Amino acid sequence: MEVKIKNIERNYIFKRNVSEEVIQNIENIVGRVRGNVVLAREKGINSENVDLPTEIVKAEIAADVMDELTREEKRFLVTEINMVSEKEKVAGIIKGEILNE
Asked: Which domain of life is it from (predicted)?
């Protein structure tokens, strides 16, 4: 399974199945900025890396995403995270499998 996250409007509805619920949770988890989650300031992606070289930013974001998903979404096993950059923008492609579906 491959999950593509885009920073667009999110639709928060009750999901019909586990796959849709897990994907929605992944979108929420990787969309958090560290320090912005009330009563859980340690959660989220570190935004302080923004001025670092692109290759370092990609590595830091991939590590943060792996840590966040491992801790927050036990039903998803991450097998690969690919960070790609285009015109000074960095995007992630998360691959893995949903467990116990």
From this structure: Bacteria
